[in-house]
Specification:
With 45 residues, the chain is mainly β. Helices cover 0% and strands 47% of the residues. A hairpin with a 6-residue loop joins β3 (17-21) and β4 (28-31). GO terms for molecular function: GTP binding.
Length: 45
């Protein structure tokens, strides 16, 4: 997987998605989601 953050690109390996974050509050909105879609934020391992 390649992460794009502003102008930086970093190669990484995602072991698992721990939780999905609410964009307004930054708090956990769903635990162990199966996938992420565009513009979602998550805690990953």
């Amino acid at each position: 997987v390649e992460f794009h953050i502003h102008h930086a690109k970093e190669a990484a390996k995602v072991e698992r998605i721990i939780s999905l974050l609410d964009p307004k509050t930054g708090k956990v909105s769903k635990k162990a989601p199966r996938c992420l879609t565009s513009k979602q934020s998550a805690i990953i391992e």
